Amino acid sequence: MVHDQSDDMLDDSSSADIPPPSISHAALAGARQSRVVHVGNFLFAYRDYLFPLLFLILLLTTKPMLPFGSERIDWWMDVLGIITALVGQGCRVLAIGFVDNIRRGGRQKRVAASTLIRSGMFAYTRNPLYLGDLLIICGFVLIASCPWWYLLVLPGFVGVYWSIVLAEEDFLGQKFGQDYADYCQTVNRFVPKFTGLRRARSHCSFDWKRVVRKECRIACTWVTMTLFLLIWKQWERFGYAARKTDIQELSMLFLLLLVCYGGGLWLNKSGRLKS
Length: 275
Description:
This protein has 275 residues and is an all-alpha fold.
């Protein structure tokens, strides 16, 4: 019997033309998120040092601009920046004052959580502390009045906090499973829902001692940075001699800040801030 090889040849050629199966979009997205989570876990350990380091570098290498050539507009930008930073600090105060058991530094610089916190501000946004940090950073950018701050600081730290949040979500999803999935379905990642906030506050106790104990250092740090920014702007634009009085008045506020920080440390070490 004569074997017809044309069919075999057709089959071989057609099979050769079939492209290899492509990787699904879901698999690619999962791989990208896995890399972001890995980066987020690394940044989580060193997040407290990132902004102070960049802040110092930018102070030494950039110069502030006068918005539209107007000192009045610059003054209002300073006011808006300070208000934005205060709103950010307010988010942190509400998050810490209404909720206990916040382990901010994780364990051994790794993401950690013993319980899933869903009360207080965490009932309205899943990341009130990071939301507060981002608002404080936005306040710095408004005060700095420098294009490089808009180009480097804002997108850079949105990316940093986004990767850290994804790393924390990965950990919490693995640890708490469906409970965390349900929580994510009802509460936004950043943008808070204010429905029922007043009613929820009436059922929660607020611990000012815990706020002072946990937030004194952070609040004094960003206020110190704000004063440095204001002095830096005056010095770089007009020189010390031209703005000597303004610079000296701002410098005197460091003494007041030092007194506040020292008072907070004393209260904490003396045990007066125990809840």
